[in-house]
Amino acid sequence: MAGLVELSDLVVRFHARTGLFRTVAIHAVDGVSLTIEAGETVALVGESGSGKTTLGRASLRLVRPASGSVRFDGRDITDAPERELKGFRRQAQAIFQDPYSSLNPYHTVREAVEEPLAVHGIGTAAERTDRARKALEDVQLRPADVFLPMYPHLLSGGQRQRVGIARALVLEPRYVVADEPVSMIDASSRAELLYLLRDLQATYGIAFLYVTHDIASARHFAGRIAVMYLGSIVEIGTPEAVVERPLHPYTKALIDAVPEPDPANRLRERPVVPGEVPSAADPPAGCPFHPRCPRFMAGRCELQRPTLREVEPGHYAACYLYEDET
Ligand SMILES: Nc1ncnc2c1ncn2[C@@H]1O[C@H](COP(=O)(O)OP(=O)(O)OP(=O)(O)O)[C@@H](O)[C@H]1O
Ligand SMILES: [Mg+2]
């Protein structure tokens, strides 16, 4: 079966100015292939700067890839002009990290949640309000009629994020990218919001790309975990496989860096591996992780980039340690 979202060999570069006449290319996404099936949740984990947000945005065609392709529901949309993306824009939505900046302070909750419907010309005014009401109830802002006339400043961070989720779901999308949806919510509300997202995802059969720093929360939320490092996916598999039998030295480091069972602390960002912070402006040759890798093999890892290999069924790693085992 073909996936709903199919990314192949995706490359995204940014050009950052370093001087008056000089720019450097930032290899934010450096050759990623990833398929997300209808109704599936894939968690994308990795350190800051590894390219998670950029990959999510490229999958929504919010940034144009330099090469590779983005397919949605069998259709190649890599270079489709905006006017041909209307149907896609309706079916693919985003939930953003920051519930404070993602809502217009001058719009009521009703306006915020009805807006996507109005943009897509869906329903009459009365129908739009009905759908907004239902979306608010879905995200447990109940009774909806109390929340509809409210302005964002009256809402807590968690409630604002629920409005953001309602806004994304009101179009009944088939694919949603949730980029660190709880990292700016106060700790006591995070787990509840994640469970809400998981329930909505399951109820409506939405394919989810859940972007997070936190491999532990990914475990309870995702059908598969993809670990990203410096623009590449270095490991992918079920949560049990990736968390209990991590293959890639980077994944192992990522898991060891989360000793904290308290979910309130767990979600906080922490440095993963000691050593120099990698730069996407100057990615190393060979395996992107080799300069920091405790299992570095000279004469091999620095020469050519390893590709993802299926080490056990459904569990892939891009590492020369497993080169001869398949
Ligand atoms: N608009 C941009 N212009 C220039 N460089 C960018 C831009 N957006 C991202 N980058 C760079 O691309 C790389 C990947 O960034 P990205 O935001 O995708 O990482 P991330 O994994 O989402 O990080 P974080 O966990 O901090 O959100 C980084 O080196 C970042 O500095
Ligand atoms: Mg990000």
Overview of this protein structure:
The chain has 326 residues and is α/β, with parallel strands linked by helices. The chain has one domain (5-277): P-loop containing nucleotide triphosphate hydrolases (Rossmann fold), CATH 3.40.50.300. It has eleven helices and twelve strands. Strand 11 and strand 12 form a beta hairpin. Helix 3 (109-119) crosses helix 4 (125-138), helix 3 (109-119) packs parallel to helix 6 (157-169) and helix 4 packs across helix 6. The longest helix is centred in the middle third of the chain and has 18 residues, at 187-204. The relative contact order is 0.14. The chain binds adenosine-5'-triphosphate (ATP) and magnesium ion (MG). Residues 14, 16, 26, 28, 46, 48-54, 213, 280 line the site of adenosine-5'-triphosphate.
Number of domains: 1
Low-confidence stretches: 262-271
Distance between the termini: 24 Å
3D shape: globular
